[in-house]
Specification:
The chain has 603 residues and is α/β, with parallel strands linked by helices. Helix content is 36%, strand content 23%. Fructose -6-phosphate (F6R) binds next to helix 9 and helix 16.
């Protein structure tokens, strides 16, 4: 997935395009580029690596032109090279693209057979080649786009400019989001409203299959059948201020530290502090008492939040839950029964697999509920109920504060479900809500232990493999701990259900393998400790995360004692800090780890 932007402006646009791309860099940072229409035709600047490389290039070699498009790339087809960097120019056409053209091989073969010469390895170039062919055969840009869109299969958002057509920009959406920004005598296209926030807050979102012909003063929108359609204009709340790191070395450090505050904001939305009771800001369009099943779909860290929620819903509300990764749910064709609720969990609200799972579940007649951090996202718009997390913008590519905010929102839903199904008494609800209310303070205590955690992280940094073990509610935390460590430090790490270890993975244990054991003093504590002893007996280097002070013989990180119900929230902080400090020690790019992107809008 990539970020795209287009501007028909009054002044030279290259700098504004870079500013918008800065806000889209979370979508990919393999390379970036800008193209504008100038008196000599189409001119472009492209640079491999972070956006700052493109900004430096533009400072050395400025780009004139009041109409332009730009792109920040997360490579799918073709290596990370300047040649493969967008925008792609063929003849009189320049294109930027987010997504994947799935039938590009067939199209490429056809074009090559017709004499086309390809200069890149990208799937995007077929779009530029097809458009250029149409135009060389006399088609207008509008007709060329209409003809080419019919030929494309896959998921894409496109922005296109045409040589000599300074008052024309065409955008198209099939899958990944694309927004039109309305200025005064200026118009914009962008992958999201945040990219366009410095210029306008008047936003029209294209729907799937739409394409738009944009000039300085208007936008005409057509649907997949080429019928003119009206799409509503909304006023975006996205802030034009770029979030900064404050006094922190990395966004990730800041976001870890912000957790007590932002989970407090999320709690404030869903909890009545005085009554110690869950309180939804809006009535839900379903009654948990009438549901037979919940399906939870999400990716990565969000999927682990979903897995924690499975334990909560099943235990508290006695409601069967299937929690699965979205890329499996969407293709498994699972039969979903009537009276089911599908919950999708996503920071961005744009993750392609999660969105597809949402649409699948909707088509299967499920009620749908999206737990999202970006209120204007596609998932928020397409689901029946939106439960927002109030984490604020998360810039670090690895999710931290959005994970704990997702947990808070899901915990509140599970409590509500328990109340509606009669499986949770008012007294028990007060106790669970009280435990949630205490978590910001308890997290703050763990954050104070950062120096000690950093020392342990430094020891982990020299390892080749690291294991994380947890049981019950903290099994998903073991998975999350391993994910955080591998994505940030590039150390191989695996998470296991502690009881599963003896069925194979224990073979990996020797004195070189640190094993992080997540063991709050809950009803499974003794069992987890037995699994830990099995590891210790084989020489494994134990790091114990616990609220019990009785295990001084091991490297221990002590977490405040709390109701076991909230333990995933509290243990999230030390696993995040371990990964963060290991990465800092190893000198990796903490906020933008290699090969990743913040929002994954391709399959
Ligand atoms: C890992 C991480 C990813 C995301 C995943 C889903 O630290 O951030 O695993 O959780 O890509 O993204 P969203 O939540 O935007 O759907």
């Amino acid at each position: 997935m990539c970020g795209i932007v287009g501007i028909l402006g009054k002044e030279p646009v290259a700098d504004s395009i870079v500013e918008a791309l800065r806000r889209l860099e979370y979508r990919g940072y393999d390379s970036a580029g800008v193209a504008t229409l100038t008196s000599s035709g189409i001119e472009r600047r492209r640079a491999v690596g972070k956006l700052r490389n493109l900004a430096e290039l533009l400072a050395r070699a400025p780009l004139p032109g009041t109409s332009g498009i730009g792109h920040t790339r997360w490579a799918t087809h073709g290596g990370v090279t300047e040649t493969n960097a967008h925008p792609h120019v063929v003849g009189d056409v320049v294109v930027v693209h987010n997504g994947i053209i799935e039938n590009f091989r067939t199209l490429k073969d056809e074009l090559i057979a017709g004499g086309a010469v390809f200069t890149t390895e990208t799937d995007t170039e077929v779009v530029a080649q097809l458009l250029a062919r149409e135009i060389s055969q006399g088609a207008s840009p509008r007709d060329a786009v209409k003809a080419v869109l019919k030929r494309l299969q896959g998921a894409f958002a496109l922005a296109m400019l045409f040589k000599g057509e300074g008052d024309l920009m065409i955008g198209a959406r099939n899958g990944p989001p694309l927004a039109i920004g309305h200025g005064d005598g200026e118009m914009f296209l962008g992958s999201d409203a945040i990219a366009l926030a410095p210029f306008t807050n008047r936003i029209t979102y294209l729907e799937d299959g739409d394409w738009a012909v944009v000039s300085h003063n208007k936008a005409e929108i057509f649907d997949a059948e080429n019928r003119p359609v009206k799409r509503p204009m909304s006023f975006s709340q996205a802030s034009s201020l770029l979030v900064d790191k404050g006094n922190y070395r990395h966004f990730m450090a800041k976001e870890i530290a912000e957790q007590p505050e932002v989970i407090g904001h999320t709690l404030a939305e869903y909890v009545d502090f005085a009554e110690r009771r869950v309180r939804m800001p809006q009535a839900l369009p379903f009654d948990f008492a009438k549901l037979d099943r919940i399906t939870i779909a999400a990716c990565g860290t969000a999927a682990y939040a979903g897995l924690v929620a499975k334990y909560w819903f099943e235990r508290i509300a006695r409601l069967p839950v299937e929690a699965d990764i979205a890329s499996e749910v969407r293709y498994r064709e699972a039969p979903l029964l009537k009276n089911g609720l599908a919950i999708v969990v996503s920071q961005s609200g744009e993750t392609a697999d999660t969105l597809a799972a949402l649409r699948y579940c909707k088509a299967q007649g499920q009620h749908t509920l999206a737990v999202v951090n970006v209120p204007e996202s596609t998932m928020a718009r397409e689901s029946e109920t939106v439960i927002r997390t109030f984490a604020g913008p998360e810039i670090g590519v690895a999710s931290t504060k959005t994970f704990t905010c997702q947990l808070v929102a899901l915990a509140c839903l599970a409590i509500l479900a328990g109340r509606q199904r009669g499986t949770l008494s008012a007294e028990a609800e007060r106790e669970l809500v009280g435990a949630l209310i205490a978590t910001p303070r308890q997290m703050t205590e763990t954050l104070k232990d950062e120096k000690h955690i950093a020392e342990i992280a430094r020891e982990l940094a020299g390892s080749r493999d690291v294991m994380f073990l947890g049981r019950g509610l903290n099994y998903p935390l073991a998975l999350e701990g391993a994910l955080k460590l591998k994505e940030l430090s590039y150390i191989h790490a695996e998470g296991y259900a502690a009881g599963e270890l003896k069925h194979g993975p224990i073979a990996l244990i020797d004195e070189t393998v640190p094993v992080i054991v997540i063991a709050p003093h809950d009803e499974l504590y003794e069992k987890t400790i037995s699994n830990m002893e099995e590891v210790a007996a084989r020489g494994g280097r134990i790091v114990l995360l616990t609220d019990d002070h009785g295990h001084k013989s091991f490297r221990t990180i002590t977490v405040p004692k709390a109701n076991a119900f909230v333990s995933p929230l509290l243990y999230a902080v030390p696993v995040q800090l371990l990964a963060y400090h290991a990465a800092v020690f190893l000198g990796t790019d903490v906020d933008q780890p290699r090969n990743l992107a913040k929002s994954v809008t391709v399959e």
